[in-house]
Design brief:
The complex is a heterodimer of chains A (356) and B (304). Chain A is α/β, with parallel strands linked by helices and 356 residues long. Chain A has helices spanning 2-15, 43-58, 76-85, 99-108, 133-147, 162-178, 195-207, 221-229, 257-269, 296-310, 337-341; strands at residues 19-20, 28-33, 62-67, 90-93, 113-117, 126-131, 152-157, 183-188, 212-215, 232-237, 248-254, 276-279, 286-288, 320-321, 327-329. Classes of the chains: A alpha/beta (356), B mainly alpha (304).
């Protein structure tokens, strides 16, 4: 039945057409390919907010178009090719799974500029961009360790990919910097997006004694459970304070607008080149929602850490040991970006066994 | 702890049970509507929209049911009046529902909803353990059980139920006896639509008060599987829904306990349990055939 649902989803993706504004020849056309619906209030929604920011900032110098619900994998190629043929000056592929399809099309259309989010393959006309969400997760860890009365957080996660593992590790490093004995309970829901299951996971974690919930899934369901139970949590992707005015302490907001504006402007000026940028709190790509529902002391600490990270400090600075106690990075050594992007081990103190 | 787990299982099982009970009646009348997911998601968006616009979750629930009926009528018109293929039309209905709900719900994304209140009977709800489980649920939970009993009684104890089963078992004979096959099936499909709509509304109004696209996340398909699982017997659908809900919730708890069991295997368990029970049931051929509507999925064109 799951398979059938998947099939249905794919067919839906085929059925969804491109939405595009009025066309004019002298304008730069900037195009986006999203993996989810823009109505997910999560990952794709935030990319689309970035597109809207470009429209707002650059006005009639640009024209934008997007296709949502594009299945990751070879099928995405058609969408990129169509955009390239339709005269897009720059095309943004916003999901990891688009990487190969986008690269193939980029090689076929050397005059069109491409950018790919969260991947690692590039071309002379295909740049890479990503956000250092782990910086925010370190701050969440510190807040959780300060505010939790039970020194125990529940962590809802989707799939064991490096991005997620990196997030868990950053969170634990942050928490351990306050309380070395801080514990985390991890639940894999094996889905990016199933509000019901996320809510169930949150309930299970709270029932087992956690008093703070962290999530690496997209919906507001988990933090709404926290709100209902009078406990605390963090928003994900978007500022979810409206859903949990008493529970959300802060949220890691994916703020792609600044990067998109920069990239589109560069194309307009003729200065665009295929870059590999990994932006974080410093660049505004990772934005922390207002600190709320915590003590003043915790708030000051969070702000100080945020300032420290914005100043260039990396949360993955040694000494860092893994679960077995083996030292991975000696004191003062900063984990190279390549290591982070391929992270497949837990730091010391995480009780979960990483699904392989 | 046990009480907390049971409470979570109830919320996980209710949307499945509502939609499955509706589809059971549809299939008993001989129509296979694979569009449950589409009707559910329409119920979810309508339920949320009405709730937010009127401020009343109860009206939202009614709105969800109405939306389910409206899209099911589309299916009924295409398959019963125009005699189109039911499987293809059902799949199309799902795609249509997912797309249309996304469009309709666009302005509701990122808006907090209002949660359907649970009944609170002073005294009874305060009872230890059973209080909250038995007397502290929201109205849709009770409705889902009422529907199981109601449908069971209707199918087995009433004349109208007998006619509906006759239509589903042999539409030509039912027609020859003078019953309106198409009329009965229209009503059955509409009932299925209403129940799927309620299931969807439960998701967006009671389970997780929010609207996002595709929020049903495959529950309509599970409801469809539950009908076969139940071999078209209402109380078995209830058992199936609760079994499915229980395994889903328990696997989350097992993970949180940190036993170190592979989460992918645990996530598979609800489906595995369904398959095992299906195999066990189909072992008894006679009982299965006895309950299966013989005309299921077959189009009916009256010979004049």
């Amino acid at each position: 039945m799951k398979k059938l649902a998947l099939l249905a989803g794919t067919a839906l993706a085929l059925a969804v057409g491109a939405v595009s504004g009025a066309s004019a020849a002298d304008k730069l056309k900037a195009c986006w390919v999203y993996t989810g619906p823009i109505g997910d209030f999560g990952y794709s929604y935030q990319h689309d907010q970035g597109r809207l920011a470009v429209e707002k900032e650059l006005g009639d110098k640009v024209e934008t178009a997007y296709v949502e619900n594009v299945a990751e994998g070879p099928d995405a190629e058609r969408v990129f090719e169509r955009f390239a043929r339709e005269g897009c000056g720059i095309v943004f592929g916003t999901s990891f799974g688009f990487m190969d399809a986008e690269l193939k099309v980029a090689k076929k259309f050397p005059k069109v500029k491409f950018e790919h989010a969260t991947g690692y393959k590039s071309a002379p006309n295909m740049g890479l961009y990503n956000a250092r969400f782990y910086e925010g997760r370190y701050i969440l860890g510190q807040i959780a360790a300060k505010e939790s009365k039970k020194a125990l957080a529940g962590y809802i996660v989707s799939f064991p990919i490096p991005e997620v593992v990196m997030g868990i590790n950053a969170f634990m490093l942050g928490a351990q910097s306050i309380n070395p004995d801080f514990k985390v309970k991890i639940v894999w829901v094996n889905s990016w997006f199933d509000p019901g299951k996320e809510a169930d996971a949150a309930k299970a974690l709270f029932d087992q004694g956690a008093d703070i919930i962290v999530q690496h899934t997209d919906s507001t369901a988990a933090i709404q459970v926290a709100e209902e139970r009078g406990l605390k949590g963090f928003g994900q992707s978007s500022d979810m304070i409206k859903f949990a005015p008493k529970a959300q302490m802060t949220a890691i907001v994916d703020n792609w607008g600044p990067h998109y504006i920069k990239a589109v402007k560069a194309v307009l000026d003729g200065t665009w080149k295929a870059d590999d940028v990994w932006e974080g709190i410093k660049d505004g790509t990772v934005h922390m929602a207002d600190y709320a529902n915590m003590s003043d002391e915790t708030k000051k600490l969070a702000e100080a850490t945020q300032a420290k990270i914005a100043g260039g400090w990396n949360p993955f600075t040694g000494p860092i040991a893994d679960q077995t106690g083996k030292e991975r990075y000696a004191a003062g050594v900063v984990a190279p970006d390549g290591d982070l992007l391929g992270m497949n081990w837990y730091v010391k103190g995480v009780d979960d066994k990483l699904p392989q | 702890m046990l009480e907390a787990i049971i409470l979570t299982i109830i919320t996980a099982a209710t949307p499945l049970l509502l939609a499955a009970t509706g589809e059971l009646v549809v299939e008993k009348s001989g129509v296979l509507n694979l569009g449950v997911e589409g009707m559910m998601v329409m119920g979810a968006v309508a339920g949320f929209a009405v709730t937010v616009s009127t401020g009343s979750p109860l009206l939202g629930v009614v709105g969800g049911a109405i939306a389910g009926v409206l899209v099911s009528l589309l299916f009924a018109f295409v398959t019963l009046t125009l005699v189109a293929n039911q499987v293809a039309s059902g799949l199309a209905l799902t795609l249509f529902g997912l797309g249309l709900s996304g469009l309709m719900g666009e302005s509701f994304v990122g808006q907090p909803g209002i949660k359907l209140a649970s009944l609170d009977i002073p005294g009874l709800t305060m009872l230890p353990f059973v209080g909250k489980v038995l007397f502290g649920q929201d109205i849709l939970v009770y409705l889902s059980f009422a529907a199981v009993f109601g449908v069971s009684w209707f199918l087995n104890r009433t004349r109208a139920g007998l006619i509906l089963r006759a239509v589903g078992d042999n539409h030509s004979s039912a027609h020859a006896l003078g019953y309106s096959v198409i009329g009965v099936r229209y009503l059955a499909v509409m009932f299925g639509g209403a129940m799927a709509g309620l299931g969807g509304a439960y998701l967006s109004v009671a389970y997780t008060p929010l609207w996002v696209e595709n929020m049903t996340a495959g529950r309509g398909w599970i409801a469809l599987a539950l009908v076969v699982f139940a071999s078209w017997v209402p109380w078995r659908a209830a058992v199936g829904a609760y079994l499915f809900g229980a395994v889903t919730v328990l696997q989350l708890h097992t993970q949180a306990l940190g036993i170190g069991f592979p989460s992918q295997f645990l996530a598979m368990l609800p489906y595995l349990a369904t398959v095992i029970v299906l195999v066990a049931i189909s072992g008894n051929r006679r009982a299965t055939l006895f309950n299966t509507p013989s005309s299921l999925g077959k189009s009916f064109v009256p010979d004049r």
